[in-house]
C-alpha cells in the first residue's frame, strides 16, 4: 500500500543505500551490480521493514565495542533491486538521483541478460557507478582523480 511504500522510501532516504558497485571476477574482469540496502540498529523496525518488503534481516558487522549492533536488509538481485526502487520511487526525495541511475543500470543489464556479455557496457557502468558513489559520498566535496579518469573513460 502507499503508506508502506512511503515509509520504506523515507527510511531509504535517511538510512538507506542505493548504489552500483564493482566486483572483480576470477578471470580478473570487472563486473558491476546494483545493491539496495538499509542499515539500522533497531531490530524491531528492521523486522517490520523486512516483512513489508518480503525479505529478511541480517546482522551487520560491528565496527567496534562502542558501537551498537546494527541490522541490514540487502537486495542484490538486479530484478529485485529494480522492483524495490520502482515501488518506492514516487516517494523518494534524497536518494532520487541514485534511484534514477540504479534503475537505468538495472534495466540495461536485464535487457542484455540473455547474451551474458556486458563488456560493451563497461565504460557506461563505470561512469554510472562513479556518479552514484559521488552522490553517496560523505564529507567535503573534494574528488580525487576518479577511476574512470584514470582509465581514460569519459562521459
What does this structure look like?
The protein has 155 residues and is of the alpha+beta class. It contains 6 helices and 4 strands; from the N terminus they run αββαββαααα. The protein has helices at residues 2-15, 43-53, 78-88, 96-112, 122-136, 147-151, and strands at 16-24, 30-40, 58-60, 70-75. The chain has a 4-stranded antiparallel beta sheet with strand order 1-2-4-3. Helix 3 (78-88) packs antiparallel against helix 4 (96-112). The N and C termini lie far apart (39 Å). The model has no long low-confidence stretch (mean pLDDT 83).
Contiguous low-pLDDT stretches (5 residues minimum) are: none
Derived structural class: alpha+beta
Task: Give the strand order of the largest sheet, numbering strands 1, 2, ... along the chain.
Answer: 1-2-4-3
What's the assembly state of these chains? single chain
Number of helices: 6
- What characteristic shape results from the CA principal axes? globular
User: What order do the SSEs take from the amino end to the carboxyl end, as H and E?
Assistant: HEEHEEHHHH
Helix content: 40-55%
Average pLDDT metric: 83
**What distance separates the N and C termini?**
39 Å
Number of separate strands: 4
How much is the radius of gyration in Å? 17 Å
What percentage of amino acids are in beta strands? Answer: 15-25%
* Major sheet summary line: 4 strands, antiparallel
Amino acid at each position: 500500500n502507499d503508506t508502506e511504500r512511503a515509509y520504506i522510501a523515507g527510511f531509504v532516504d535517511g538510512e538507506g543505500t542505493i548504489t552500483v558497485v564493482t566486483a572483480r571476477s576470477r578471470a580478473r574482469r570487472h563486473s558491476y551490480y546494483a545493491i539496495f540496502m538499509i542499515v539500522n540498529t533497531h531490530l524491531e523496525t528492521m523486522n517490520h521493514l523486512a516483512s513489508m518488503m518480503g525479505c529478511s534481516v541480517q546482522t551487520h558487522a560491528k565496527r567496534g565495542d562502542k558501537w551498537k549492533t546494527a541490522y541490514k536488509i540487502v537486495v542484490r538481485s538486479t530484478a529485485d533491486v529494480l522492483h524495490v526502487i520502482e515501488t518506492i520511487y514516487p516517494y523518494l526525495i534524497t536518494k532520487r538521483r541514485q534511484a534514477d541511475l540504479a534503475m537505468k543500470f538495472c534495466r540495461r543489464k536485464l535487457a542484455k541478460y540473455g547474451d551474458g556479455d556486458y563488456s560493451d557496457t563497461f565504460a557506461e557502468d563505470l561512469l554510472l557507478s562513479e556518479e552514484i558513489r559521488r552522490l553517496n559520498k560523505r564529507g567535503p566535496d573534494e574528488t580525487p582523480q576518479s577511476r574512470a579518469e584514470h582509465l581514460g573513460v569519459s562521459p
